[in-house]
Amino acid sequence: MMTPFKRLHSLRSLCHSSQIPESSSHLLGSCKSYSSALSNGSESNLRSFYPHLLKGHDGFPFAGVKPLTLRSTMAAELSIFMNDKRMVTTQVKPSAQARLVGTQISISSPGFIYEPYEPRKKIPFLKRWFTRSGWKRTKSDIILEMKNAYAIAKLRKTGYSKSQFYNEAANMYKEINTLIAVGDKKSLRKAVTEKMFSVLKNEIKQREAAWSRVYWEMVVPVVKIRTLRARLIGVDPKDLNKVFIQLTLEILTKQKFEAYDANGSVIAGDKNKEVLVRDIWVFEKSMFHPGAYWRLCGRISTKTQ
Q1: In the structure, what pLDDT confidence band is assigned to residue 240 with cuts at 50, 70 and 90?
Q2: What are the structural domains of the chain?
Q3: I need a labelling partner for 171 at 20 to 30 A (CA). Which of 58, 223, 250, 296 fits?
Q4: pTM reported for the whole predicted model
Q5: DSSP codes joined into one string, 230-292
């Protein structure tokens, strides 16, 4: 049986060959963690501009799918940790639905979030390195990080720039929330996936039944944006280039909100006060159709994070 010290040496060799820093918070349990709460505690006051936005993972179905092997050297280097199984994306049946909108193409979304993000709980150093469960957790953390790295590397080949995408995501976040606030379903349909549009349309209907109108404003610039997860979804087992990519972003903003009844009286919120709001949104894009663009495909509840 491999001793703990030999295990540690093997893992360090793997991290070096894969170009993953040993100080990674997910691999070696450093003090950084996605589960850390916001220091001012104000996120619980208003997580979005109306309560119907908070419904977990939007009920996206985790349909039965077959694994799609990713042929990469990074995946091969991880075979010792994966019982000779390589990293995989998920696969869905290819859709024949696609419609041309001007010079852009709107592609039918797979309709679910692949491996929805959840914060990883910290575990003590000794437990991580000197127990069977700790070693299993370390293996799982490495696999998650390698999936992220592979998806981002694939995306960069298409000309992806993190700073440029963050600006685009911030604009989309503001635009989509504004469209929801004014109830513009026609414009909203183009900015979100088919599944997400159905969810938002129902939320707008519920909100309009409770409030006559709402005021919503995002204070610019955005306080913080960071990528929490990157995943690929294959649609053709014979062509590894036919994939959708999903990027899960944490978006921290200051917002103003106020709701009115039919007489114009304020019944909720205060547009003179700024509220710090933390949202986790999942953006999706086809990587195999020229002219495809990013759309919102889901939101992840932050209530328990």
Answers
A1: confident
A2: 41-120+160-300 (3.10.450.240)
A3: 58
A4: 0.68
A5: EEEEES-TT-TT-EEEEEEEEEEEEEEEEEE-TTS-EEEEEEEEEEEEEEEEEEEEESSSTT-
